[in-house]
Amino acid sequence: MQDTLRPVPIFIRRSAALTDVGRRRVSNEDSHFSDDMMGLYAVADGMGGHAAGEVASQEAVDTLRGMVRQGSALLRAVESGDHSHEALWRLGRLLESAVQAATYMVFGIAQSEPEQAGMGTTLSALLLCGSYGVTAQVGDSRVYMVRAGKVAQLTEDHTLIAWQLKQGIISESEAALSPHKNVITRAIGSREYVQVDTHFFPIEQGDMFMICSDGLHGYLRDDEIPAIMALGPDEAVHEFIEIANLRGGRDNITCIVVAVGAQDADDTLVFRRPSSLPPNHDTEVPPHRHDTDPASADFGEEAAISKTPTLRDLRPTLPEFAEDEDDNDDDRLNQKR
Prior knowledge:
Layout (H helix, E strand, L loop, with lengths): L10 E10 L9 E6 L4 E8 L4 H18 L2 H8 L5 H28 L7 E2 L1 E7 L2 E7 L3 E6 L2 E4 L6 H7 L5 H5 L20 E6 L5 E5 L1 H4 L7 H5 L3 H14 L6 E10 L48 H4 L14 H8 L1
Antiparallel strand pairs: 1-11, 2-3, 3-4, 3-5, 5-6, 6-9, 7-8, 7-10, 10-11
Helix pairs in contact: 1-3, 2-3
């Protein structure tokens, strides 16, 4: 395999992050991390009760950050234009291995400390490097991308309802009434190993991303996201948190918004404020789950997400890696087992 070194656009990244306890919870078990220089962003939604969820989510993002930092030489190579299959495969492996390390750490703590037994967390991570982005996904937090005013969900929910919908077992209307809204099928820390979904995609100037917990996306419609994101990272995160609280705020709410722009003389990003926000954005909306197939999003031929390589495409010989108003975090994790 011959390495490919090519000039890459000089992208600058700007992000804002915000978390809120919501209106029904007494503590915040979400954790998040954002680093524009590293290009790494993550949201974790902990579960387990008795502060165990907070421990699990914080340990997950801390371990993820530490492991990705160990790959700084690789990150610099890809940022500089090394888009060979080997480099991109290693980039995906770096993020996936970091999530696996987080799983091992959270599981180990839960096993060794009785008060933390049964804890776990979701983890949604985004790594932007050079002209590519990579997501890693476990659980039901989400990563969205907005390009040219269109939104796509880049991650797949690991929930019982999402699986039933994908298999055609239930309809969207049945899913809205399902008593199993909070049952997740994968979590960090429930075992010492977890199957991690990874996904590659090209990035372009003007792309925006949102990483959030289900305390936010459960209250949003996809068509509302682009106009709010267009406010820019700082204003958008506050607007998203406010919307989730106005519509119920039943869970902790965490949101990271990232903007990608080309470098100019002032190294600044310019955002164009939309003429108006989506209508009735403060109206009560019942929490819902709606999965958008990334491959079906129409971003044009050159940017079609379905044409980008997955980790398996890059190295086919890789081993197989394997709400209700008063929802209970212990039940949420135990039901997945």
